[in-house]
Write a structure and sequence with these properties.
This protein has 377 residues and is α+β, with helices and mostly antiparallel strands. It contains nine helices and 18 strands. The protein is globular, with a radius of gyration of 21 Å.
Length: 377
């Protein structure tokens, strides 16, 4: 066997994307100086959990972490996929953090993937599982991912800090994606959404809906927000509530925004009074998220700012054909994604601002990525 050459990287930033691109491009990586100067150095629990997840869906994948967790050697294996897998995502990040890389691994695996993920379903930091269902799945279909076998079921919800939610993700395999020309945003024709509450009064949901509708009704008549009040075991282990909204345009774009509010962790006391003071009232939550969605729509991109990285990666993995997309202002995550895609896949985007609309047009020639593991017997 020849000696493995590792691509040397530094720092903890974009670890998730680096691991994903390393796996897809089959390039082993050595990441050093992971939070070396911080009080708590090394990998965080959610990053270790992500590595375990990569090991679970791959064959022959090698992960070596030094004692302090500041140095990581990762040699990707063959992504196998598989059915009836179960992974506990822990409670330091929500399930949304794990879904994005999982999708890509699933699409280019040897066998279709079905996996049960346990943990936090909605938190203020990562895209919620609802956004994933309403926005990410339609985005994948645009690139030729079949609807058959692509699904996310929310079996129970979990709010921070203790989680307790469960979802089942199914991803079909594809031979390759389709290049897209997708620059027309269109006009918003309807707004849909879902509110959830766990271990609190369902009245919180009605208040959020009323507040959000109060803003949308000035602009558009077709607004429908569903409620998903969970009780008993399906409500997870912590109290919380939140809302996920999606605007659909007549050009087939889905623009989303979501948020969740949860009680902060208090040490061994059940002092509700203190906890309640910290929470944003449901009415404010509804208004804030409605305003955030309007802001995303105003940007005029075919995806919202949280989906930029995903969109660019899909374009880069297309056949050697031109893909052209329009986004609003480039988000920091989107910009970082473009850098990682250039470094790992060698795909460079031509970026052209469009001053008349304040949007940005991006063009690239796909890397011609194919799912080779399907053919390997």
């Amino acid at each position: 066997m020849g000696k493995t050459t590792y691509r040397r990287l530094q720092g903890s930033q974009n670890l998730r994307q680096r691991l994903l691109l390393a796996t897809l491009s089959a390039s082993p990586v050595l990441i050093e100086e992971i939070r070396a100067d911080e009080t708590l150095p090394g990998l965080r629990p959610h990053e270790v959990s992500l590595l375990r997840l990569f090991e679970m869906v791959s064959d022959d994948c090698v992960v070596e972490i030094n004692e302090t967790g500041t140095k990581l050697k990762y040699k990707p294996g063959i992504v196998m996929g598989g059915r009836h897998l179960v992974h506990d995502c822990g409670v330091s990040r929500s399930i949304g953090y794990f879904l994005e890389p999982l999708i890509f691994l699933g699409l280019f695996a040897k066998k279709p993937l079905t996996i049960r993920l346990k943990g936090i379903t909605n938190d203020p930091k990562d895209p919620s599982v609802d956004t994933f269902r309403s926005t990410t799945i339609p985005l994948l279909k645009r690139f030729g991912v079949p609807s058959e076998g692509l699904d996310l079921k929310i079996e129970s919800r979990g709010s921070p800090p203790h989680g307790g939610g469960e979802v089942v993700l199914a991803v079909p395999i594809v031979q390759s994606l389709n290049a897209v020309t997708w620059t027309d945003f269109g006009m918003v024709k309807r707004i849909r959404g879902v509110t959830f509450s766990t271990r609190v009064s369902s009245q919180f949901e009605n208040t959020m809906i009323h507040a959000a509708r109060g803003i949308f009704n000035n602009f558009i008549p077709d607004v429908h927000i569903f409620t998903d009040h969970k009780a008993g075991p399906q409500a997870g282990n912590s109290r919380g509530f939140g809302i996920s909204l999606v605007a659909e345009t007549n050009a087939g774009c889905f623009i989303s925004a979501d948020t969740a509010v949860a009680y902060a962790r208090t040490e061994e006391t059940n002092d509700f009074e203190d906890e309640k003071k910290e929470l944003t009232p449901p009415g404010d939550v509804g208004e804030q998220i409605a305003s955030v969605l309007l802001g995303e729509i105003e940007q005029g991109g075919v995806v919202d700012s949280t989906h930029q990285g995903l969109l660019f990666l899909l374009c880069a993995l297309c056949p050697q054909d031109v893909s052209k997309v329009r986004v609003g202002k480039l988000s920091p995550y989107g910009i970082e994604s473009l850098r990682q895609i250039r470094d790992f896949l060698g795909v460079k985007f031509v970026i052209k601002p469009d001053p008349s609309t304040g949007t940005v047009l991006l063009k690239c020639i796909g890397s011609g990525f194919k799912n080779l593991s399907r053919k390997v017997s």
